[in-house]
Amino acid sequence: MDKTADTTLSPGRSAAGIRVQRSLAIGAGLLAVLAVAGAVLVPGFVSMQNARSILLLASFLGIASLGQTLCALLGALDLSIPFVIGSANILLPSLLVSGLPPAVAIALILLLGALVGAVNGLMSFRIQGQALIMSLAVGFAVVGATQIYTTLGSIYAGTVFATIPDWLRNLAAFNGTTLGIPMPPVILIWAILAAVVILAMHRTWFGRGIYALGGSRVAAARLQISERKLWVAVHAISGVASVSAGMLLLGFSGGGFVGVGDPYLFTTVAAVVIGGTSLLGGAGGYGATVLGVLVLTVLTSILVGLGLSFASQQAVVGLLIIPMVAIYARAPHIRNQI
Fold first, then answer.
1. Closest to 62 in 3D by CA, of 274, 332, 221, 235
2. Which of 230, 258, 271, 291 could form a disulfide with 158 if both were Cys (CB 3.0 to 4.6 A apart)?
3. In sequence order, what are the residues at sequence separation of 6 or more whose Cβ sits closer than 8 angstroms to the Cβ of residue 229?
4. What is the pLDDT of residues 209-229, one digit of tens each?
5. In this predicted model, what pLDDT tens digit does every residue of 114-157 receive, in sequence order?
6. Cα 154 to chain center, whole Å?
7. Would you call 175 exposed, middle or buried from its count of C-beta atoms within 10 A (0-12, 13-18, 19+)?
8. Cα 67 from chain centre
9. Of the ranges 206-210, 249-253, 271-275, 324-328, which one carries the lowest mean pLDDT score?
10. Quick check: pTM over 0.85?
11. Which residues have CB under 8 Å from 217's CB, separation 6+?
């Protein structure tokens, strides 16, 4: 689609650019306000330890939100993410206990993540009217099958213990170091991943195809963009991102727990929405999601610092999402789709 697509998509680029800049400005402004509020309200909020903690937790959510962002740009949502995260979190230690070398076990899980994502994408594409339920069903099936496999001969359902390699613990633990610097390497990995994804979304056929398909399926079809291939590829990427987050969380916690992905059912969608990516597709991007992730993580840090319970934290985040959705829904692109 190179030349044709470039020519056809050009008229919408300036408007799309304005929408993205507006979303980024809102996200950056909200992040700045929260940072000031945290500094005023929470003792010790402005410290290297707290900054490292926020960035570490944000990196897990950011990696898990990558697939959700790409799915949202197509007008879809992947509800299998938390279950795939939990599955990877217990499958890796189980494979290590069975004697598989760590590199082989990780490669196998990445491959399974891509396969599950591709199957999820193919099935949800065939019945797009029920895509949400389909992705949820795939998640249930995956986590159920993984639990059956990992609990064979064990009395500890949902929890798997193993000796975690030191390099994996250093990668994602709070006290991890990067080249001698007291910063977990996963933060740097997330930063590099974000830069690559943002660049790829605007400089490659794949990224432009996602925006074209999310913006108008008719226009994408006329540009000979394969909706099925993109749909499957995006969900496969989501599967890989999910298992990566699950394995990194194993290095963070030191033990496999199938429920470790549960919070990511809501927070990955919330990060996408707060960042300004339209759930109807075609507008937003991973850069906006990065801001959404940071806003959510800083807000959670403040709420925890103020001593609020988990239920209260959810209520506050929900109250934050409502006005953000209202603001972004006023964009002409989204109004026209509605």
1. 274
2. 258
3. none
4. 999 988 888 888 888 888 889
5. 999 999 999 888 876 677 888 999 999 999 999 988 887 666 65
6. 32
7. exposed
8. 5
9. 324-328
10. yes
11. 227
- Phi, psi for residue 311 in degrees, rounded to 5: -65, -40
What's the chain's length in residues?
A: 338
Between CA 91 and CA 80 the distance in angstroms is 16
Place of tokens 């909020």: 45
**pLDDT value of position 314:** 80
Q: Give the separation between CA 49 and CA 176, rounded to whole angstroms.
A: 12
- Whether residue 4 is predicted with pLDDT greater than 50 in this model: the reply is no
Q: What is the pLDDT of residue 329?
A: 59
Q: Is 230 within 8 Å of 75 (Cβ atoms)?
A: no
Which sign does the torsion angle of CA 125, 128, 131, 134 carry? negative
Judged on CB neighbours under 10 Å (0-12, 13-18, 19+), 278 is buried
Distance CA 321, CA 305 (A): 21
CA distance 83 to 58: 19
- The share of the chain scoring above pLDDT 90, in percent, equals 51
- HEC sequence for the chain: CHHHHHHHHHHHHHHHHHHHHHHHHHHHHHHHHHHHHHHHHCCCCCCHHHHHHHHHHHHHHHHHHHHHHHHHHCCCCCCCHHHHHHHHHHHHHHHHHCCCCHHHHHHHHHHHHHHHHHHHHHHHHHCHHHHHHHHHHHHHHHHHHHHHHHCCCCCCCCEECCCCCHHHHHHHCCCCCECCECCCHHHHHHHHHHHHHHHHHHHCHHHHHHHHHHHCHHHHHHCCCCHHHHHHHHHHHHHHHHHHHHHHHHHHHCCEEHHHHCCHHHHHHHHHHHHCCCCCCCCCCHHHHHHHHHHHHHHHHHHHHCCCCHHHHHHHHHHHHHHHHHHHCCCHHHHHHC
Task: Write down the pLDDT at residue 226.
Answer: 87
- Specify the residue for token string 């903690």: 53
* Predicted local distance difference test score (pLDDT) of residue 1: 42
Q: For residue 257, give both structure tokens.
A: 């727990």
